[in-house]
Amino acid sequence: MCGPTSGADSRGVPLEIIPPLYAAGLPCHGDDSALWFSESPAALEVAKDRCLDCPVMRECLSGALARSEPWGVWGGEIVERGQVVTHKRGRGRPRRQAA
């Protein structure tokens, strides 16, 4: 993650794309910023929902894809290994398929 001194916010979003009036009110900023990097699929869905009204949602997602972010919710989407995934699978072994 980049810090503010390197021209990006705490999530790595370049500060140039965040309008100054919105920077403090972005849903990913605050005490629960770890929600966007949770291991819990349910928590990631909550983070995605919080992104829906974000004024920089598109820029956030396009920046994450351009940087090949390794994981997290970016722009209302779950990103893993630089790619958007539809949902995050829970930890552990996959469920057994019925025969």
Automatic annotation (TrEMBL):
Key words, A-Z: 4Fe-4S, Cytoplasm, Disulfide bond, DNA-binding, Iron, Iron-sulfur, Metal-binding, Transcription, Transcription regulation
Listed cofactors: [4Fe-4S] cluster
Chief location bin: cytoplasm
Domain 4Fe-4S Wbl-type: 27-84
Listed GO biological process terms: cell redox homeostasis; negative regulation of DNA-templated transcription
Cellular component, GO annotation: cytoplasm
One MF annotation (Gene Ontology) recorded for this entry: metal ion binding
InterPro entries, sorted: 4FE4S_WBL (IPR034768), Whib (IPR003482)
Subcellular location: Cytoplasm
Family recorded in the similarity comment: Belongs to the WhiB family.
Function: Acts as a transcriptional regulator. Probably redox-responsive. The apo- but not holo-form probably binds DNA.
Designated name of the protein: Transcriptional regulator WhiB
Organism: Nocardioides luteus
